[in-house]
Amino acid sequence: MPQLQAPLGIRGMRLRNRIVMLPMYPFSFHGDDGGFFGAMHRDHYIRRAEGGAGLVIAQAVNVLGVLDGTGTWSKGDRKFLADIAAGCRREGAAAMLQLAAGDFEIHDLDAADIARIQRSLEAAAAAARDLGFDGVEFHFAHGYTLCKFLDAGYNTRTDAFGGDLENRARILVDLLPRIRDRVGEQFVLAVRMGVDMPAANDGEAAAAYLARSGIDLLDISFGLRKPAARDMPESFPGSPVVWSGVKIQRLAGVPTIVGNGVLTGELARTLAEDHGAELIGIGRSMFTDPDFALRAVGGSAVNACRDCPDCRWFTDHTRCPGLATRLSG
Ligand SMILES: Cc1cc2nc3c(=O)[nH]c(=O)nc-3n(C[C@H](O)[C@H](O)[C@H](O)COP(=O)(O)O)c2cc1C
After folding, report:
1. Which atom of ligand 1 sits closest to the CA of residue 313?
2. Could you give the CA distance from residue 159 to residue 130 in angstroms, rounded to a whole number?
């Protein structure tokens, strides 16, 4: 069973431990110089790297805009993204960027729209490599555009992008050889996806197919709906996403991040050491404790997220009660 402090290599990326900062969009942060990203974002990510994270996955950025250098792909924003990648690496963490394709109604997209999304996905992966990131994570989770394509229950398209699994994953899988050519052998290509797509066996099949198609790393979360995990024993200490994620990890055969509700260092250690989770994804507790990784790996208490029903980081992070220190677990 992996120990939290065990290093791991994935292509050219070296992780000093098994703690991953999950991608999270800090909605109340603002950019500098009229841009989207700024010093707030830069300092936030570099601080979590300094706090010992093995891997920092920076928040979702929309790939649309990369072709003409607009949105988060403007020159000013790219500078901050490059600073995030370089700063995390200087602090000893690996750094990846999450790439999302907006929130389109997929049945309204025509062939030209899909081709533009595909060109943007490819260009954004290459741009992230040029900015200094170790890899990218394609966002196929949480009900956004790419998630809708992959979900067997949602995607009722009758063209080459709907129907069987090969078609539902085509929006990315067809690009993988070209992306690999552009980014080189060292760069990590990851997918974040849901456990149920819509049922658990669809999620398992999709994960295995993506791994076979050249995806190096999976990050397991929820898809369009709350996972059922009907086979989860009552004694399992983690959430249904984590339970199903560990099962997916076993059959996908590539390194897999499992996260969702891992708020304490104690739970992170238990999942790694007693349940075989290879990489533990930490979301909100990275907000409340930038030193989460150092503390969890070192076996000391963390300042855990208070698990508010309405996370303040969606509206005004300065009102997060977890920012007041109270060490636990
Ligand atoms: C404020 C906020 C922003 C988030 N932004 C993203 C995002 O950009 N991409 C993503 O895949 N998940 C995002 N998430 C989901 C987290 O990555 C994570 O899956 C979720 O918070 C559950 O993990 P946790 O219980 O450790 O917090 C966000 C969550 C929060 C609270």
Report:
1. 1
2. 34
